[in-house]
């Protein structure tokens, strides 16, 4: 007879052990005995029970453990499961599933939180209770009677965009918070179309470009370009300098002038770029604004390439594409 009791195994495979209640060790089921060999060996004698009971313990709130950093004296559920894995030759399938899921969520949590912040700024102005769509890549569903700029929370810029692009009805075709954020997902929606409006969101900055010529078919292992687009321009809608929405025209357009650049599906992490202006990458802090912006475009802001994000390298939080029909 030993003075401990074993609580039931919860959904995560975690087992709680307490002393001062009698139980028969033989009554334990085989799974429970197998998962906690070190706990049982620690409590085989009254001396070891006393030793284990007198060890200092730091309170730990499991409910907050996934949101706050673990202290040295408070181990995470994942740490506990790793210990069980070391001690046992066979694991409960639920333990393996939980450990794998926890490690995956830990590696993605920063990205999801950042996108949720962007969605709070843009989407949730219209839908305060809407769940962050970036966590599930579901097909983009649109209301045909709803304005496309209102869908993504850009209705405040609709008037100025229509001034820059008159007599064209815009349709939202790509949203990285709803669809895969990679070159394949982007190219599937834009290649073959013309009158393309691209909008990039990075933190509080919103900018983009307009391309009137047809987008060529992608090259799987290379780049394709749009050239000689007389109606092309780039713009800022919101920036750190609080400068009003402004569009910037190219200094010169000819048959050699490149505007849009699309990356192939088998290429690097680059998705799309506007030549001598911005390039969107999938990796954090790898998207860039070209320092030669002012030499290619008529910069009326006086801020040069910093007008877009305030720095040369940035993280793309959201990428949108519309086309005019």
TrEMBL record:
Protein name per Swiss-Prot or TrEMBL:
TLDc domain-containing protein
Organism of origin is: Entamoeba dispar (strain ATCC PRA-260 / SAW760)
| Domain TLDc stretches | 165-314
Q: Name one Pfam family in it.
A: TLD
């Amino acid at each position: 007879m030993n003075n401990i009791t074993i609580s039931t195994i919860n959904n995560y495979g975690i087992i709680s052990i307490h002393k001062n209640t009698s139980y028969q060790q033989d009554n334990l089921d085989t799974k429970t005995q197998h998962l906690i060999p070190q706990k049982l060996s620690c409590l085989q004698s009254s001396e070891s029970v006393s030793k284990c009971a007198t060890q200092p313990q730091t309170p730990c709130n499991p409910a907050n453990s996934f949101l706050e950093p673990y202290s040295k004296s408070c181990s995470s559920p994942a740490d506990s499961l790793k210990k069980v894995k070391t001690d046992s030759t066979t694991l409960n399938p639920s333990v393996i599933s939980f450990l794998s899921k926890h490690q995956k969520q830990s590696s993605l949590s920063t990205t999801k939180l950042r996108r949720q912040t962007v969605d709070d700024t843009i989407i949730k102005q219209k839908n305060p209770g809407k769940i962050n769509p970036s966590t599930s890549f579901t097909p983009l569903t649109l209301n045909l009677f709803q304005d496309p700029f209102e869908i993504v929370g850009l209705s405040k810029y609709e008037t100025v965009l229509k001034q820059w692009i008159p007599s064209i009805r815009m349709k939202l075709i790509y949203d990285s918070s709803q669809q895969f954020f990679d070159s394949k997902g982007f190219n599937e929606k834009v290649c073959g179309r013309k009158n393309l409006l691209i909008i990039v969101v990075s933190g509080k900055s919103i900018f983009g470009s307009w391309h009137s010529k047809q987008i060529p078919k992608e090259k799987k292992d290379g780049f394709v370009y749009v050239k000689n687009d007389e109606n092309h321009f780039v713009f800022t809608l919101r920036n750190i300098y609080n400068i009003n929405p402004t569009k910037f025209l190219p200094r010169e357009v000819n048959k050699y002038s490149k505007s849009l650049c699309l990356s192939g599906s088998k290429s690097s992490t680059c998705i799309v770029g506007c030549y001598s202006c911005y390039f969107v990458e999938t990796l954090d802090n790898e998207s860039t604004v070209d320092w030669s912006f002012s030499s290619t475009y008529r910069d009326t802001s006086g801020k040069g390439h910093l007008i877009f994000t305030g720095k040369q390298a940035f993280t793309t939080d959201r990428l949108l594409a519309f086309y005019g029909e």
